[in-house]
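Contributing new records

If you add data, match the layout below exactly. Sequence lines come first and carry their own label; structure lines follow with theirs. Keep one chain per record. Anything else will be rejected by the validation script.
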Amino acid sequence: MRGAGSRAQPQRIGLCFSLQNCVRSALNFPNNSFPSGGVFDQAGKEKRLAEIESSISSPEVWGDQEKLTPLLREKSRMEAEIQRCRELKASHEEMRGWLELAEGGEEDALEMLEEQTAHLRSFLARTELDVLLSGDSDHCDAILDIHPGAGGTEAQDWAEMLERMYLRWAESRKFKTQIIDSLPGEEAGIKSVTIRIQGENAYGLLQGEKGIHRLIRLSPYDASGRRHTSFASVDIIPDASEELDIEVKESDLRIDVYRSSGAGGQHVNKTESAVRITHLPTGIVAQCQNERSQQSNRESAMRVLKARLYAFEQSKRDAAKQADYAGKDAIAFGSQIRTYTLHPYRLVKDHRTSEERGDADAVLDGDLDAFLRAYLLWKHGQPPQEA
């Protein structure tokens, strides 16, 4: 028994050092490659929470839902982030205590350290995205647009596959989705779709999906069974209309009503309920035809218009973003951000981050988290690592 204990001693020492490095890494995590005063700025968040609680205690605020709703959302977000900071600090302190006991020869401490290490690593993995999602609009809901490229039915079918992929991803996260506008293809697929995705950090998580997506497959619409390449563009903008006072003059708008297209029904297609709103100074257009009444369609279209105006104004503040907004890449070869290969092999590869997965079916079924995480790390200048 003594010999076994002696042989196990170097393993215990090695484990202690490994766990000690894990603790040090965790303790430095809030300041590791990220600016101070961000998501781990507990004092700043507690101060902001006190300001929000003071604001919502006023009867005037409760009478104004447009002001109250964003304040309540921010309050919930601040409370969650403060609790996260407290849990992380408590986990650090508990782990350091067990580490001291283990280095002092306590037998049971090693087992507790293993459990605490697993807990801490899991906690840090969950917290990592929150650190990366610290932009001004990252917490907002998202408005997603999909448009097929040249190629007729092939590209339109690919656009519908992307629509399904994002709807399944949102469903897996229990996010709410609303199809604001959809134009079906002539034979199959869709000519365009606009989807509102509501959930915590929806825009921040999806922001990297903006760009051209390429599909390579054996065409189900080609009787010869030849391989085809299809393209579709995805655009993502934050839905910040509830949190920002975006003033749009009625005189700057042209509002057109028309009959909805699609499969029809008892009400759809029989009245001019669809609404298209054009912002004349910028030429930005938003439309909605999926609601049952013209008023509901107008409200949804106005929400999308405000979100697009906000994104447009944000892009003008940065020259690079302005160029990206004003002149998007052609939906064709050489401009894609990601390729989905279904033949002759199966692989999904992001050309910006080099993240790739062989299970293409799972990705098309909404398993996007690895690509979303890799993009956020790439955006912040960090190499993607295994989760």
